[in-house]
Amino acid sequence: MNFEQELKNFKKFKENYLFKQKEIEIIEGIAYCEGIALIDEEGKELGDSEKWINVGYKLKGPYAKIYSNLFPYKFIFRGKELHCIENFFQGIKFKDKELQDIVLSYSGLNSNYIKAATNYDWKKTGIVYWQGQKINRFSKEYDDIVDELYISAIQNPLYRNALKICNKDIIHVMGETEKEKTTFTRYEFEKELNCLKDFLKEE
User: Fold this and answer.
1) By the 8 A CB rule, do 46 and 59 touch?
2) What is the pLDDT of residues 2-54, one digit of tens each?
3) Which of 59, 96, 113, 173 is most exposed by smallest CB count within 10 Å?
4) Is the pTM of this model over 0.90?
5) What is the pLDDT of residue 203?
6) Pairing outcome for strands 169-171 and 52-54
7) Any residues with CB less than 8 A from the CB of 58 and at least 6 apart, and which?
8) What are the beta bridge partners of residue 24?
9) List of domains in the chain
10) Which of 151, 139, 141, 154 is nearest to 4 (CA)?
11) Cα(184)–Cα(143) distance, integer angstroms
12) How far is residue 132's CA from residue 121's CA, in Å, rounded to a whole number?
């Protein structure tokens, strides 16, 4: 199947995808998801459990790391080689195309930290940029480019297979919840990955 057809199929699948975000309950100062504490006996944040995978690049558990946007899966997006998915979400905070291209070449945590190098604050305008093109962060156009990003990412066979074999629900507790504060909220991330993994199971 070619890329354009897969993107079209995914969009149709997503339109009918029923996603309900898992609730996080705080009991005596400890966060729980479906009755399981999000920290282990040593007080470290837990990435994997028998019911879910809590994605986080620095969390305990191998699956928490490989589903992170920071994991170094290389892929091509709109003619640009990205070294991880996070390249996109940090790169769009740069108006300047040349600076954005540099961000796209970074990997993992470095692409996350480099956001400090821009003097453009997208939060004031709600506008992000892709190669000089303005995109309203709160628009359908933005949602569409994110879908295109992830379908591009799953062209990497390792990332594709990692999602395909996932048999647990994916959560991302550390994520921001408000669109005004982040280029990808906890809800958006969880829906995208859970939808992707279920989409791939139909192969």
Assistant:
1) yes
2) 999 999 999 999 999 999 999 999 998 889 999 999 988 778 888 988 999 99
3) 113
4) yes
5) 80
6) parallel
7) 65
8) 33
9) 3-200 (1.10.357)
10) 151
11) 10
12) 15
